[in-house]
Specification:
There is one protein chain. By secondary structure, the chain is an alpha/beta fold. The protein folds into two domains: 125 residues, Enolase-like, domain 1 (2-Layer Sandwich); 217 residues, TIM Barrel, CATH 3.20.20. The chain has twelve helices and 13 strands. Strands 4, 5, 6, 7, 8, 9, 10, 11, 12 and 13 form a ten-stranded mixed beta sheet that branches. The protein has a three-stranded antiparallel beta sheet with strand order 1-2-3. Helix 1 packs across helix 3. Bound molecules: magnesium ion (MG). Magnesium ion binds next to loops. The site of magnesium ion has 5 residues, from loops.
């Protein structure tokens, strides 16, 4: 089998409410890999809030796409190495890693279709039903909007809800968490997300005010680059730490694991160099006693969690309009059943490209 073409485009996808209060749109870098045997693989990368999506598309088109044309798509590992090393002057982090991720996702989609297996079974399945946590709770929501969103996820059976704690005053964040906790009752546990917004002392002050809420995890306390501060926060607060949506390779995760800085690893399949590297990160996490709970894009991340025994939850954030994909896996009784379709099982709706294309 040979790759004959890779069709790319950029979609600008409006978000539903209440997320639209914080972010009006996301962008999707789409790469459809075409082969001479009729199999096609859908790759995409979700660029949250859209920042940098044009650069992702340009890097994909000009540097990675030429490396794949004419190659056998079933040699996924070989092609991953080729893409990772195509420019030794550009680290595969940030923009370049988003681009590589989209193509790796497309290659694995072809591999699953060729094997006539959903990816989690191709990789050796552990579970076909993946627990999902409701996620959102943005800073611009009023307390009423926050509670309404949390209750919407709870009504879908989600046993976990994650919200942002972005207010500069730790007491304000604690009172917002308290309001949601009170509304949800004891059947739903919560996580909080700092999104790299505080320093070590700021996190210590914030975490003290949240200890009483039995939180599952405390996410991205400091800048993703600052591994020593990660370790210091982890040592000094009494809530487990989660991180990884801004870490792109197994070597970055190793920095976190070697310092015992996280209890939950959260690679994003669309950022962390695709399924290939996310699986490696998941296995490295297992060797360090760390649970894997991927960031966003639950519709494809379910395959990774379904294939690894240290897989925990996927992040269910209701961002996609109903006419973007042919069929988005549903959350029912707090879990998502992995579709039995071969590959990753996702396809864009026939009119989605015409409707949402921005480049
Ligand atoms: Mg986060």
């Amino acid at each position: 089998m040979k790759i004959t073409a890779i069709d790319t485009c950029l979609l600008s996808v409006p978000t539903p409410k209440p997320m639209a209060l914080q972010y009006p749109q996301h962008k999707l870098v789409v790469a459809e890999i075409v082969t001479d045997e009729g199999l096609r693989g859908l790759g995409y990368s979700l660029v949250f809030n859209g920042g940098g999506a044009e650069a992702v598309l340009t890097y994909l088109d000009t540097r990675l796409k030429p490396a794949l044309i004419g190659e056998d798509p079933l040699f996924v590992e070989r092609l991953w190495e080729k893409m990772f090393r195509v420019d030794m002057g550009i680290k595969k982090q940030g923009i370049a890693a988003y681009a590589l991720s989209a193509l790796d996702i497309g290659l694995w989609d072809i591999a699953g279709k060729a094997a006539k297996l959903p990816l989690y079974k191709l990789w050796g399945a552990v579970s076909e039903r993946i627990g999902a946590y409701g996620s959102g709770g943005w800073a611009k929501y009023s307390v009423d909007e926050l509670v309404a969103e949390a209750e919407k996820y709870a009504a879908l059976g989600c046993k976990y809800y994650k919200m942002k704690i972005h207010h500069p005053d730790p007491a304000v964040n604690a009172s917002r968490v308290a309001a949601v906790k009170k509304a949800l009752g004891s059947g739903v546990r919560m996580m909080v997300d700092v999104n790299q917004g505080r320093d070590v002392i700021g996190n210590q002050q914030q975490a003290r005010l949240l200890e009483e809420f039995d939180l599952v995890w405390y996410e991205e306390p400091v800048l993703a680059d600052d591994y020593d501060s990660y370790a210091e926060v982890s040592r000094s607060i009494r809530i487990p730490i989660a991180a990884g949506e801004n870490h792109y390779t197994r070597w970055e995760f190793k920095q976190l694991f070697d310092r015992k800085a996280v209890q939950y690893a959260m690679p994003d399949v669309c950022r962390a160099n695709g399924f290939s590297e996310t699986l490696r990160i998941g296995k490295l996490a297992a060797a360090n006693g760390v649970a894997l709970t991927p960031h966003l894009i639950h519709e494809v991340a379910i395959h990774v969690v379904g294939a690894l025994s240290n897989g925990f939850l996927v992040e269910f954030m209701d961002w996609a309009p109903p006419d973007l994909f042919v069929e988005l896996p549903e959350c029912k009784d707090g879990a998502i059943r992995i579709p039995d379709r071969p590959g990753h099982g996702m396809a864009l709706a026939p009119k989605a490209i015409d409707k949402y294309r921005s480049r």
